[in-house]
């Protein structure tokens, strides 16, 4: 069976949110996965027409789930959102309002609940959502590439960014180039480093400030999460600290979560869904979503 990925747009609290949608192969669906891209990216992080085998959307649909990869507030159709609505708390509010209207938009394709799959800055957002009272209704969260701790080079580069504009200028210095976000040659399509092949977008400054301060703020947030969490780091992570001690720290901080699964994904760098091994990573996400669905 062929599964279709369609471009969609939703009007949520006066904000146009765009994205990519793949509807479940079964009716009603098993549930809906809301996929949140990282900073400086967009919905195509989760699905590229040139690499269908690595698509979370096509995989999820084939397994009976509906998958919506949304352009987070400040990206895609909502690029240029006022700065006072760009920060992660306001993004969380808009995405919860999107969750409110999705059952009406999707009908039986919405299925049995909402699961968040999220990467990097999007994962910070997903965990913030899961730490709220509204977040208790989520089936669970799969968080990848979370910057619980930055490398020293990345932290210095982020500290040097002026924050008086609307968008983040390119980071400068060691540990900030495109190669920082990928594994060794051969683990990804080299076209992703070309102007034509990159999956990139400008970063709104307000969310950057939240991400820059994340090592200070996230520990307290994690202690409030009360839904299952699948936490993945990349084997070749070079943007964040991601050794066994970071995984252990994440597990300790998620003390209120009913289940925590900690995983190191082989064969990938920070941008896990853009590597050849993305399908293996996405299969783990979908397996965890299925397990979360079974416990409701």
SSE diagram, text form:
Layout: E1 5-12, E2 15-22, E3 32-36, H1 56-62, E4 66-70, H2 88-106, E5 114-119, H3 121-130, E6 140-144, H4 152-159, H5 205-212, H6 214-222, E7 229-234, H7 244-253, E8 260-265, H8 278-294
Parallel strand pairs: 3-4, 3-5, 5-6, 6-7, 7-8
Antiparallel strand pairs: 1-2, 2-4
Descriptive overview:
This protein has 296 residues and is of the alpha/beta class. Helix content is 30%, strand content 17%. The chain has a single domain (5-294), classed as Alpha/Beta hydrolase fold, catalytic domain (Rossmann fold, 3-Layer(aba) Sandwich), CATH 3.40.50. The protein is built from eight helices and eight strands; from the N terminus they run E-E-E-H-E-H-E-H-E-H-H-H-E-H-E-H. Helix 2 (88-106) crosses helix 3.
Strand content: 15-25%
Number of helices: 8
Task: Note the overall shape.
Answer: globular
Number of strands: 8
CATH topology: Rossmann fold
Number of discrete domains? 1
Give Rg in angstroms. 17 Å
Highest-level CATH class: Alpha Beta
User: Which structural class is indicated by helix and strand composition?
Assistant: alpha/beta
Major β-sheet strand ordering: 1-2-4-3-5-6-7-8
Low-confidence stretches: none
Q: What is the end-to-end distance?
A: 29 Å
Summarize the structure.
The chain is of the alpha/beta class and 296 residues long. It is 30% helix and 17% strand.
